[in-house]
Design goal:
Layout lengths: L6 E4 L7 H13 L4 E4 L6 H17 L4 E4 L2 H7 L3 E4 L6 H8 L4 E6 L2 H9 L4 E5 L15 H10 L4 E4 L17 E4 L1 H4 L4 H16 L3
Parallel strand pairs: 1-2, 1-8, 2-3, 3-4, 4-5, 5-6, 6-7, 7-8
Helix pairs in contact: 1-2, 1-8, 2-3
């Protein structure tokens, strides 16, 4: 099955009661999210697994792969389809050996060298950025569109742009062969996550893919 990362939604439950968080996640899924990452930095392992199982029920309903940020143990315990490892997380090769060949493995890359190694070590797709400053992480290292372009040409796996992206600023990605865009706040904090997801996907197809 071909991996569709065209609209990669990364969740942020900060400030939301669980019921409202899950409502927003489902709303986004109805708007055309093609892959979803559950990212929880401040929960206990048990809390993370519990939430992952609830989110997985929703993603299964919409036939969207669920990716767990950072935690291979939570991915395995919840039955999620994959895991994403960042620069300071578990090495890509180690993660691949633990999850097996059938699970999806994503990795973060900010340079061509890191991207190439991640691919060689077993990554199925890459997240590259931040393209714009973002409010979701304290540490934000910006990545130039030139580097993003170079990475897309260096590896044969899907490369997604991430970092402060929304429907109004995708023009900087025009002409770069990315497989999709990642969004957190643009969807999570929108009045209507469904509408925001739909508009972002249309903007990506129109501006970046020229469809």
């Amino acid at each position: 099955m071909k991996l569709d990362t065209s609209l990669y939604f990364i969740t942020d439950s900060t400030g939301f009661a669980e019921e409202e968080f899950l409502r927003r996640v489902e709303s986004a899924l109805t708007g055309g999210v093609s892959i979803l990452q559950l990212r929880e930095k401040n929960r206990t392992t048990r809390e993370y697994i519990d939430l992952a199982e609830k989110v997985h029920e929703l993603t299964l309903k919409y036939k969207v792969p669920l990716i767990i940020d950072d935690r291979v143990d939570v991915m395995l315990a919840s039955g999620a389809e994959g895991v994403h490892v960042g620069a300071e997380d578990m090495p890509v090769r180690t993660a691949r050996s633990l999850i097996g060949e059938d699970k999806i493995l994503g990795a973060t890359a900010k340079t061509v060298e890191v991207a190439t190694k991640a691919y060689e070590d077993g990554a199925d797709y890459l997240g590259v950025g931040a393209i714009y400053p973002t409010t979701t992480k304290v540490k934000t290292v910006l990545t130039s569109t030139e580097t993003l372009d170079a990475i897309t040409k260096a590896v044969p796996i899907p490369v997604n742009a991430i970092g402060g992206l929304n429907k109004d600023n995708l023009h900087v990605l025009k002409g770069i062969n990315i497989a999709g865009v990642c969004a957190v706040s643009a969807i999570m904090k929108a009045d209507s996550p469904k509408e925001a997801a739909s508009e972002l996907k249309k903007a990506y197809e129109r501006i970046v893919k020229g469809v």
